[in-house]
Amino acid sequence: MRSANDYDSVAQLYDVYVRADFDLDFFRRRVSQYAGPVLDLMAGTGRVSSTIQRASGRLTCVDISLEMLRVLRRNLAGLVPAPLVVCADIRSLPLAADRYELALIPFNSLAELITTEDQREALNEVRQVLRVGGHLICTLHNPALRLQSLDERTKLLGTYELPEDRQLEVWIRGSVDRVTDVACSVQTYRIYGSRGELEAEQTQEIRFALIARESFEGLAVDAGFRVVELLGDYDGSSFTPDVSPYMIWTLEKVE
Q1: Among 90, 134, 154, 247, which is least packed by CB within 10 angstroms?
Q2: What region does 166 belong to: left with phi over 0, alpha with psi -120 to 50, or beta?
Q3: How far apart are CA 240 and CA 232, in angstroms?
């Protein structure tokens, strides 16, 4: 099985243009509260993993993309103890049942499983590998606010330095299917040489679901979780439907 998006072709560029750190202190603090093994799901190149490894010490990183995991291994090289790195689909986890005290799905990653059935399968799999009383922290966009940026206009995300005086430009155009509530971000990558000449260009579509609060809560309860907390931002503020940019869920596995 594959997710809706394939990051293999941009894995070597990912850390150049994805520099988000607004959530790292939040995850560091949360992970430090747990003594048992921690699971970072849909871990990508290790943006969160490299932060929480220092707080956890017993970390497993899972992603479906081999190329992203190659970068993750480089990023996490030298950390002691070394994290366990597993290439797997979150909907079919080859991990021991009842092992983990905490699992994370950061950065709106679950939404990249665009069907309700896929989301349900993922939550069921996560529940299987958590201990009873263990927690899942899953972060999602608030659809009401995320919709505002999906206006079908092409925008420059940023210009980034590459080795040998080269540059990367990333352009994005977001849209949404109002029938299915599936969004599409068309991302164009242009690499320019030291003299400003265009060396390479590629385009990738990133698809993700706009998951409503009620829908996700229903899936979580059906999968055997109870809602412990719902925050609206990484500063710890409570979720407010018309204001909060995020839905930061803490779920507990129940008997």
Answers
A1: 154
A2: beta
A3: 6
pTM of this prediction?
0.96
pLDDT in tens, 117-174: 999 999 999 999 999 999 999 999 999 999 999 999 999 999 999 999 999 999 999 9
CA dist., res. 51 & res. 83, Å (int): 12
Portions of the chain given CATH number 2.20.130 = 145-207
8-143+210-253: which CATH topology?
Answer: Rossmann fold (3.40.50)
Rounded distance between C-alpha atoms, residue 65 and residue 189, angstroms? 19
Q: What is the DSSP letter of 180?
A: T
For residues 225 and 217, what is the distance between their CA atoms, to the nearest angstrom?
9
Q: What is the DSSP letter of 127?
A: H
Q: Which long-range contacts (CB under 8 A, 24 or more apart) does 187-191 make?
A: 187/157, 189/10, 189/13, 191/162, 191/166, 191/167
pLDDT tens-place string over residues 82-126: 999 999 999 999 999 999 999 999 999 999 999 999 999 999 999
Class for domain 145-207, per CATH?
mainly beta
